[in-house]
Amino acid sequence: MISLLTLLSFFWLADPAPIKGVPPPPGGVFETEITRVVSDHAKVEMQGILAELERMSQPAETKAEIKRRLAGLRVAVYTTPKSWDETVAFYEGPAMQVVFLKGQRDILADLRDYARAAGLSVDPAVEKAWTGKSGLTARWTKDDETLQIVVEDHLIDPRDGKVTPKTVVLVTKLGS
């Protein structure tokens, strides 16, 4: 029998790809390298979750279901020249017919989180430039929590921590 970690290793060796059933945003570009970096970060987080799961006193069936969902984790990142509003309207329209939870995000707090996860330092000038500034975010999660779409109006590049006013779409799918 192949272990879960072996299965996960096969997945993480696969090339990043769009997620079936979720169309790219209008004018969108699939960001292969950013998707790879985000996937690598997710892999590290997932290993921690799996280790914690083993220590928890959950029923075997619950642990098996969580492992099954995590084994099928897929991530896709797109950028688009369209505005945040246009991109959200696209997914809320005929493309997906979903309703997003919309709000503000603290760009500097998000940048710090990305930098910490990636082992990057945040330039003091960048900290100063983004202090107190917020951006727009929209999040939709499928009822069974196996699919999530997040649309944000600023790209925080996980490779170098640069912040760019650009619409970004992050799609996350769990399970097979």
Task: Please sum up the structure shown.
This protein has 176 residues and is an alpha+beta fold.
Question: How would a crystallographer describe the biggest sheet?
Answer: 6 strands, antiparallel
- Give the N-terminus to C-terminus distance in angstroms: 18 Å
In the sheet with the most strands, the strands line up as 1-2-8-5-4-3
- Residue fraction in strands: 15-25%
- Helical fraction equals 40-55%
Structural class: alpha+beta
Helix count, DSSP H or I runs of 4 or more residues: 6
Quaternary organization: single chain
Q: Gyration radius, to the nearest Å?
A: 17 Å
Average of per-residue pLDDT values: 83
Low-confidence stretches: 1-13
Q: Strand-and-helix sequence, N→C?
A: HEHHEHEHHEEEEE
Q: Tell me, what's the shape?
A: globular
Total strands? 8
What features would you describe in this structure?
- It is a single chain.
- The strands form two sheets. The chain has a six-stranded antiparallel beta sheet.
- With 176 residues, the protein is an alpha+beta fold.
- It is built from six helices and eight strands; from the N terminus they run αβααβαβααβββββ.
- A hairpin with a 6-residue loop joins β6 and β7.
Layout of secondary structure:
Elements: H1 4-13, E1 29-30, H2 32-55, H3 60-71, E2 74-80, H4 84-95, E3 101-106, H5 107-118, H6 124-130, E4 134-141, E5 147-152, E6 155-156, E7 163-164, E8 167-173
Antiparallel strand pairs: 1-2, 2-8, 3-4, 4-5, 5-8, 6-7
